[in-house]
Amino acid sequence: MRIVDIETYLVGNPWKNWVFVRLMTDEGIHGIGEGSLGHLSKTVETAIHEIKPLILGLEIFQTELLVTRLQRHVYADGGQIKMCAISAIEIACWDAIGKASSNPSTILWAGGAVSVFVLTPTAGTAVIAHHQRSLPRRRPRLPWGIQL
User: Which of 21, 29, 73, 77 is the most exposed place for a label (fewest CB within 10 A)?
Assistant: First the structure.
């Protein structure tokens, strides 16, 4: 399944705006991601549209390639802005992968050992807060190298 389009949505609330991404594939499956950064929502939205041509045509299952390509080949001083945009796109890819494989994201990321994930693009990285429910002794490794 290849990425064919990315749409952005700004959603306002009293204290900040949220930036949501809708990533579409050639098979009609879409994924949703979020990449807000305080009061710089329009800036993150613009960054998403600026990097969009670099990932159109990539497979959604190539999340590591996608993130690496965007981190290494997009030179920008706006580190937090760029990483919030990348995080939103990556989260949308994982959402689409979960829909395509009929698995919830918790199965994809941690083999079902964690029941709830809260993803927030903070300081340029996806921070994962999890609700612990009898985690196994060995801690699962997430695809981008973060351990729970």
Answer: 77
The pTM for the full model equals 0.73
CATH second-level architecture of 3-102? 2-Layer Sandwich (3.30)
Residue with tokens 């395509």: 100
Amino acid identity of 88?
A
Q: Which residue ranges make up each domain of the chain?
A: 3-102
Secondary structure (3-state) at 13 = coil
Structure tokens at 16: 């900040």
Angle, nearest 10°, between helix axes 79-101 and 41-55?
Answer: 60
What's the residue count for the chain? 148
Q: Tell me the backbone φ, ψ of residue 71, rounded to 5 degrees.
A: -70, -40
CB 91 within 8 A of CB 126: yes
User: What are 5-41's pLDDT values in tens digits?
Assistant: 999 999 887 777 889 999 999 999 999 999 988 888 8
Distance CA 134, CA 46 (A): 41
Helix (H) or strand (E) holding 24: strand 17-25
3-state secondary structure of 91: helix
- Joined together, the tokens standing for residue 75 give 């030179």
